[in-house]
Amino acid sequence: MSTEPAVRVEDRLFHNRYLIDPERAHIKVRPHITPSLELVRMLSACPAHCYTANEKHQIEITVDGCMECGTCRAVCEPRGDIEWNYPRGGYGVLFKFG
Ligand code: SF4
Questions:
Q1: Residue 6 scores a pLDDT above 90
Q2: What is the DSSP pairing of strand 92-94 with strand 82-84?
Q3: How far apart (Å, rounded) are the C-alpha atoms in residues 13 and 3?
Q4: Which residue in 6, 8, 47, 90 is a FRET match for 34, CA 20 to 30 A apart?
């Protein structure tokens, strides 16, 4: 039996810091009436929980806390569901490993 304490991913992510760019969201969801299956999948696939569904069941994103993992870029950008860019210099996630 391991003597290492159990560590949850959420507890580790808590150490990260995020500098919000008030002038440019680095990921944008293209306007849609009905979301694609890929967009809906991001509700559970995004590790930072940046994707949410509004009252019309359309998918929205709030990029605060995005870890730039690229999951949504790989899944949704080829279909044109999102526009994905890295944050501008000085903004975005700052990973801390301690
Ligand atoms: S890049 Fe990763 S963390 Fe950022 S919004 Fe996409 S899936 Fe979420």
A1: no
A2: unpaired
A3: 22
A4: 47
Which contiguous run of DSSP H or E holds residue 27?
Answer: strand 27-29
Ligand 1 atom nearest residue 69's Cα:
2
Tokens, residue 12: 């580790």
Pocket of ligand 1 (CB under 6 A): 27, 46-48, 50, 66-72
Which pLDDT score, from 0 to 100, does residue 73 have?
98
Nearest CA residue ID for atom 6, ligand 1: 72
Kindly indicate whether the domain formed by 9-94 is annotated with CATH number 3.30.70.20.
yes
Judged against a pLDDT cut of 90, whether residue 5 lies above it is answered with no
Pair type for strands 17-19 and 92-94: antiparallel
Contact between 82 and 30 (Cβ < 8 Å) = yes
Higher-pLDDT residue of 3, 29: 29
| pTM score | 0.85
Q: Which two tokens stand for residue 90?
A: 């000085």
Residue whose CA is at the smallest distance from ligand 1 atom 7: 46
